[in-house]
């Protein structure tokens, strides 16, 4: 079969476009790992409790960092950056503070597995772009820390952190699905 010239040209264009995308300096992150992290975090405890709502004024994740529309190249960069900053900030909180004895009924095994994945994701990061500073999220993490350091509000602080991290993972996966690599999708659970 002889393909019309137009089709061949289109195919060539598609191929070269794909090669350009593959060789461009974006972070490549395994979608399945992010998805597993999301599911573990979602399943390790119950919904955000009503009595913690009063701390929403203290802890408000700056949603504006995630509100972009189509998944263009620059936006993928932005989304992966937000994800990295969020996971790294949460890692620091987990390292610097221990979970309260009371008030949190988190599944320890799932939380451990989540943390292992979190480290794996932070280690998997391969991108050659410049590292930007994270003023946007640093005040968020300061506020989270302030709330979880006080005995009365500690559990709420942890739950707010989990809620916001879950939201970041979920929006990244749902709205920016194509920013991740999905080569090993057959390993999905
Ligand atoms: C991820 O965030 C950490 C902490 O801000 C930073 O040190 C690291 O370079 C970031 N990685 C990328 C690929 O931006
Ligand atoms: C965690 O502790 C390190 C070392 O004390 C500090 O530099 C960092 O800002 C802390 N991060 C958070 C989020 O508490
Ligand atoms: C931090 O807390 C203050 C009040 O304590 C609040 O005005 C501010 O919006 C909070 N910022 C974030 C990012 O949570
Ligand atoms: C929440 O923010 C208010 C107003 O800034 C502050 O007075 C209060 O101490 C904060 N609560 C916690 C638990 O950090």
UniProtKB/TrEMBL annotation:
Alphabetized UniProt keyword annotations: Antiviral defense, Cytokine, Disulfide bond, Secreted, Signal
UniProt keyword Plastid, yes or no: no
Signal sequence coordinates: 1-23
Subcellular location: Secreted
Top-level taxon of origin: Eukaryota
SUPFAM superfamilies given in the database record: 4-helical cytokines
Lineage, top ranks: Eukaryota, Metazoa, Chordata, Craniata, Vertebrata
One GO CC term on file: extracellular space
An annotated GO BP: defense response to virus
Name recorded for this polypeptide: Uncharacterized protein
Subcellular location, principal: secreted
Organism: Anabas testudineus
GO molecular function: cytokine activity; cytokine receptor binding
């Amino acid at each position: 079969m002889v393909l019309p010239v137009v089709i061949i040209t289109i195919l060539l264009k598609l191929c070269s476009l794909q090669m350009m995308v593959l060789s461009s300096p974006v972070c490549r992150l395994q979608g399945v790992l992010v998805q597993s992290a999301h599911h573990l975090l979602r399943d390790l405890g119950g919904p955000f409790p009503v009595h913690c709502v009063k701390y929403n004024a203290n802890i408000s994740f700056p949603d504006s960092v995630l509100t972009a529309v189509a998944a263009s190249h620059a936006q993928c960069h932005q989304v992966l950056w937000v994800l990295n900053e969020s996971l790294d900030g949460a890692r620091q909180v987990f390292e610097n503070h221990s979970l309260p004895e009371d008030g949190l009924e988190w599944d320890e095994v799932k939380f451990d597995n989540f943390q292992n994945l979190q480290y794996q994701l932070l280690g998997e990061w391969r991108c050659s772009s410049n590292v930007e500073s994270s003023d946007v999220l640093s005040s968020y993490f300061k506020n989270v820390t302030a709330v979880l350091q006080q005995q009365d509000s500690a559990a709420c602080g942890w739950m707010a952190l989990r809620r916001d991290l879950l939201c970041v993972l979920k929006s990244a996966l749902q709205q920016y699905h194509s920013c991740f690599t999905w080569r090993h999708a057959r390993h999905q659970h």
